[in-house]
Amino acid sequence: PSVPRHTNRLINEKSPYLLQHAHNPVDWYPWGQEAFDKAKTENKLIFLSVGYSTCHWCHVMEEESFKSKEIGEIMNEHFVCIKVDREERPDVDKVYMTFVQATSGGGGWPMSVWLTPDLKPFAGGTYFPPEDGVHRVGFRTVLLRIAEQWKENKDALLESSQRILEALRQTSEIRVQGQESPPPAKEVMDTCFQQLSRSYDEDYGGFSKSPKFPTPVNLNFLFTYWALHRTTPEGARALQMALHTLKMMARGGIHDHIGQGFHRYSTDQRWHVPHFEKMLYDQGQLAAMYSRAFQISGDEFFADVVRDILLYVLRDLSDQAGGFYSAEDADSYPTTASREKREGAFCVWAAKELRALLPDPVEGATEGTTLGDVFMHHYGVEEAGNVDPLKDPYQELKGKNVLIARCPPELTAAQFGLEPGQLSALLQECQQRLSSARAQRPRPHLDTKMLAAWNGLMISGFAQAGAALAEQGYVSRAAQAAAFLRTHLFDPDSGRLLRSCYQGKHNSVEQSAVPIQGFLEDYVFVIQALFDLYEASLEQGWLEWALHLQHMQDKLFWDPKGFAYFSTEADDPSLLLRLKDDQDGAEPTPNSIAVTNLLRAACYSGHMDWVEKAGKILAAFSERLQKVPITLPEMVRATAVFHHTLKQVVVCGDPQGEDTKEMLHCVRSVFSPNKVLMVADGDSAGFLYRQLPFLASLERKDGKATAYICSNFTCSLPVTSVQELRGMLSP
């Protein structure tokens, strides 16, 4: 490779996204005091650019503008330019995205914001083309106009930025109003169900026409709604909506049929043509959703999808030390000789290519049938490509096919005169061949940053899958990742989580010179993961760590006046707003998960003030939950759990005994959204017995493993029959 012409300060950073921009002619600074001081000393405006390493339009804007010497000179002359990886610093991203959404009506990445030297925003947007077009002002023009305004109307700009900040402060505040209490569960649940039902796509599943996102929060809500209304038509519809959506996604092009795992979202209604990046947080949440679908339905189809997702993560997103990487890019070079990356190049196929790779005649099929014929029919492959040109504006996928299972396996088998079992073996053979062929292509960029929050979501995915599918290997992988977090993303001296660490040279794990402290989302997703891991492994050490982190979360983020948790700590002067997220999106908002975490923590510790805290969060969000519950489906779900009171399912017995294992398998195989599981093994010196003295009074009946269903530490009569226990676990 040629020696780079330019190198800026980002070369000293660890984030893969920041390093991607280290050789731009732009004099980039990372977010920090050096840049802030320079802006004040030189009385310059700040240009803030926020993105992430697998963001397609971030790459486009870099190619067009940030690699341009001429545009770089304008930026360097008039602005102090700061680059932020939104995955490293979600706090910075959230403050300025709140501004961009409020002033432009939309948002997204790359985010481009202009700030005064004291960090107050006054202009912003997302992607800008380099030059003026018919419908859009170009980036160069915007830069020059803003520089001119600063020169001519500095006072007006400063005044305007102050007004904007005050308005944002008022509109973004979430706090309890007067004596408000948690909203009633029934009304909030019913309204949320009706709102989701109205937006549901009866044909293809999902909750919009296009683009279409997986939205695990919606599916999780629907499973809980079904569990609490399973004898009603509404309950049946909720379950049908969730299972149909998961089936259509798994058959669609959003699911990588050759390389496993799920892409970020579908650009069309049919889940066919995806945006090809793969994110860790999607894999973690979807593994959990498909595990629940399997628990509820018993359909092996869903268990196979769980195994598929976890195979992808084990193979492609796992660090040797035990952590999980953040993402894989959408763009890659079509061949080793290509000079330009294309979206989806790693994943798509020309019909001619498939025929060449799968020429073998198929025994027992209609005469003349090849493997290629069967595979191409099943996955909707067309000679001229199967991508709608309207979904491919830059013609990157012209003549290519995105695989989508167009029809059930039984129909494909019938089409070629095959037995269903025979078809399954043939498709598997085809997939292995194509996987080997694909391995010869240049791989997309891998973001090897490891984030506490997203690792938490993935640990939950492995732990829940291990419990639901009775796969001990998945539980062990979850435990390995949790041990990784404790080693690399936890500071034992302060007792606090860290946000991120990075793959270093020779497979080492590195930390930034100044580590980024954990945010609220890191705490809630890691605490949730540790509870899930305890229930799957029964290792009490994970429980102990979870309760420690819950105390630390309360100390760092709780709002004693307005209730609920702030997303960030109080002591960062560079953050102009201390916000509380108010929408469940690609990931649930942290306060939504915090409610359930607090209820679980109370069950495992006996600290009932945590139940009170959970109620206070719901009270703070009460107005939003009652008016637009569809924006917070995970918190609506938590409202139901709060009002129904969690069941403590206590199994008394030797964890290694067959009778205990049978009872545990029963508890784990039933989907029950309002239970926590614990084992009373008779070790009165153990952590759980010290936390919960009532466990000492529970005994095995007739020397057999015995279950008790407890509520607020008051227990049912003992149960020794698995069938009886199964009946009692229904909400």
From TrEMBL:
GO BP of this protein: carbohydrate metabolic process
Gene expressing this chain: Spata20
Domain Spermatogenesis-associated protein 20-like TRX: 7-168
Protein name, UniProt field: SPT20 protein
Pfam families linked: Thioredox_DsbH
Lineage top rank: taxon: Eukaryota
Regions that span the bilayer: none
InterPro entries found in the cross-reference section: 6-hairpin_glycosidase_sf, 6hp_glycosidase-like_sf, Ssp411, Ssp411-like_TRX, Thioredoxin-like_sf
